[in-house]
Write a structure and sequence with these properties.
By secondary structure, this protein is α/β, with parallel strands linked by helices. Helix content is about 40%, strand content about 20%. It has helices at about 1-5, 10-20, 35-50, 100-110, 140-150, 155-170, 180-190, 195-205, 210-220, 255, 290-295, 310-325; strands spanning about 25-30, 55-60, 75-80, 85-90, 110-115, 130, 220-225, 230-235, 265-270, 275-280, 300, 305-310. Helix 3 (about 35-50) runs parallel beside helix 5 (about 140-150) and helix 5 (about 140-150) runs antiparallel to helix 6. The longest helix has 18 residues, at about 35-50. The structure holds manganese (II) ion (MN). The site of manganese (II) ion has 6 residues, from loops. It comes from Parvimonas parva.
Length: about 325
Amino acid sequence: MEMLMTKKNNTPKEILDLIKSSEKIGVISHKNPDGDNIGSTIATVLGIRENLNKNIFGIKVDYFPKDLMFLDTLKNIEEIDEQDLDLLIYVDCGGVDRPGDIGEVFRKRAKKTINIDHHKTNEHFADFNYVFPNMSSTCEIVFNLFREFNFEISKEVADALLVGINTDTYRFLYQSSGASTLRVCAELYDLGADKDFIYQQLYQNKNFEVEMFKNKLINRAKLFFNNKVAIIGMFKADFEGTDLTMDMVDDIVNYYRDINGFEVSVLFKELEVNLFKGSVRSKEFVDVSKICKYFNGGGHTRSSGCVIEGDFDFAVNSFLEKLKSEYPNEF
Ligand SMILES: [Mn+2]
């Protein structure tokens, strides 16, 4: 009973009242940024500023991904000096630790916290929570919340939300992307979201050098269980002498998952010696959030992350062992 109680969401009205009663508000999200967390941060900042005239800002906790630099509203996410806040809003954070050390600094100085998210492993860590694990993206939740608030939604907010929804659904492919997701996007188009420009920037603006580099990594993947599982290792040494960074190529994790017969694909990034961050994807039946939770991570059923300490072979072997123990009949 106790557990169920703690998992309860607050109502839109409770959340709106808390926002209204706060003057200085920070919005924060996770490290290793992507379209959904950047988009939902920008939309939350602008939507609340434009409609309620609050002193609100996005707090930068990591680099900006190159493919999102076309959003000039990125300037609303800044490096902010440590300070007291009336309210800290977490968006797209499966756990309170996802924004890293900067998040801790601001959390300690915030009077109240709100948690808006769609990660299955979210444990309702804030004072007020608004978590929908079946939603396609945090951006879809933010849109619905703004509708509940009766907010006007500007073109800038619509653009940011469209980026988040389109990227987090893998262009509407994932199961969590439903009819309601498409209806939200239809409304965003009506609100003036610049879909042609956004889609071209996101998907048809690839860099030749980056793509050739990806091919190299893809070609050296290790394949297991009769080509049902692919694991790619990406090491600091791979990037020596190049201008490239790991975040520019990490979408290669999707490559093998999308090939017939493959169920799981993994990208292990070497963060430092003997420390690997795993990005994990599945296609039909493996719940990768469960596997990743075992390795200090979590996320969604078909897309999750984890961290494994040890060398690359150890990371690969531990992962495969856990996968096999969870799905003994499949692998
Ligand atoms: Mn997300």
